[in-house]
Amino acid sequence: MKKQADGFSKVLSRMVMACFVIVLIGGGVLLEGQVERFFMRDARFALERAAEYGDPPPNLQIDGLKYANKETVIKVFEEDLGRSVFMLPLASRRVELMSQPWIQNASISRMWPNRVRVQLIERRPVAFVKRSGGADTTLIDADGVLLEAPPSASFSLPVVAGVGPDMEEDARRMRMHRVERLIKDLGDHIADVGEIQCSDAENLRIVQPLKGRAVTLILGNRNFKLRYENFLAMADQLMEKLPNAVTFDLRLEEQVTAAEEQSKESR
Fold first, then answer.
1. Which sign, positive or negative, has the C-alpha torsion 15, 18, 22, 27?
2. 194: closest CA among 160, 161, 158, 219?
């Protein structure tokens, strides 16, 4: 009998403990639900609307915005105004921001009790490219992303020929990566360049005014600054010796020659 009583006591203790755990879990779930509803419904956690139509929401902080359209950025959060920041879908809002051409990267964070902070990294244009038809130009970054210039902004950048809106994105990106490398290598010299020609990505060319004429310099695919500065060191002599030459081949570092034929293998 004693063994049976001990066994029954152990079973009863386990049942009581199980019931206690169930009640504890249930209470926790209930409490969690109440806390969640509190954060979702209490006005103190709401992302405030602007007092005047057209003004930015006072609790929406946007950092890093320079060229991207501010109204378009704010519109991404239009559905969240007047609602708890607890309900704001961070991932989907970030995707919406990243779909805008000027925005390269974005992060969104909640700042309790009722603020939202948006941090933007904008794309950096490196050149102009001609639109289809060649009547106008648009900006482009190193990844080949086309960017509309803001009305109030001005950019002093070279024009790139051989890449444009009608190209496939991968091809445009590849060519612009080569162009960016040339721009970085030339450094301050890029200010003198009027046009970069990249139809042949392995054989880049630049066009610039020099001594009263527009000259084309064939730079190949590497050592751009060295080749360019070698040419500048001999430019006066070359221009005097070859008064009618407008194209110079710089692909051999040890010499600069007037390029009469354009079929030479890229070096």
1. positive
2. 158
Quote the radius of gyration of the chain (alpha carbons, Å).
32
| Closest to 62 measured CA to CA, from 24, 115, 22 | 115
Please work out, in degrees rounded to the nearest 5, the angle formed at the alpha carbon of residue 228 by the alpha carbons of 224 and 234: 155
Per-residue pLDDT reduced to its tens digit, 101-147: 999 999 999 998 889 999 999 999 999 998 876 668 899 999 999 99
Residue 219: domain span: 125-258
Residue 179 and residue 162 share a domain: yes
* Chain-centre distance for alpha carbon 31: 43
Q: Locate 1 and state its tokens.
A: 């009998």
Say whether pTM exceeds 0.70: yes
Runs of H (alpha helix) within 122-166: none
Question: For 22-79, how does the pLDDT look when each residue is reduced to its tens digit (9 = 90+)?
Answer: 544 544 444 344 444 544 455 567 888 877 766 789 999 999 999 999 999 999 999 9
